Each structure stands twice: as structure tokens, then as C-alpha cells.
Amino acid sequence: MVPGSPMMLTCERCGASILTGKYCNKCKAELVGELSVVAHDMTSVQKKLEHTEKMRFLKSDRIH
Fold first, then answer.
1. Domain extent at residue 34
2. Residue 39: inside a domain, yes or no?
3. Structure pTM?
4. What string of pLDDT tens digits covers the 64 residues of the chain?
5. Which end of the chain is more exposed for a tag (fewer CB within 10 A), N or C?
């Protein structure tokens, strides 16, 4: 889009007028922040699972 053009795009998240893309700069920054938090949380959960998921063996003297 050309600045001053009668056609304007709107941000899909907040409805603000934008020249290009799907999101305004404010919404882009918020989305990046939200996704970063989710990615960090997922990484933390994965690390916890890696430490708790271990193969366990039964002692043969306890099997009847």
C-alpha cells in the first residue's frame, strides 16, 4: 500500500489501520512476547518430563 492511498488494511487483531501485513506493530510485539512465554513454558515442561521419564526395572526377587 502507498501512504495516502484511499485503500487501507486493518490489523486482524485490533483493527488499527496498517499499510502492510496482517498485524500492526503493537500487536506484532505483543504476539512475539506471548509466544516467547509459551515457548519458555513448553521448554520447562519438556525438561521436567525428560528428568522423570526413566525406565524402571523390577527386582527379580520380588516377582512371584
1. 24-53
2. yes
3. 0.58
4. 566 667 889 999 999 999 999 999 999 999 999 999 999 888 888 877 776 666 677 777 665 5
5. C
- The reply to whether 2 falls in a domain is no
- The CB density around residue 16, as the number of other CB atoms within 10 Å, is 14
DSSP for 1-64, written as a single string? --TT-S--EE-TTT--EESSSSS-HHHHHHHHHHHHHHHHHHHHHHHHHHHH-------GGG--
pLDDT at position 46 = 80
For residues 9 and 17, what is the distance between their CA atoms, to the nearest angstrom?
6
Cβ atoms of 51 and 64 within 8 Å: the answer is no
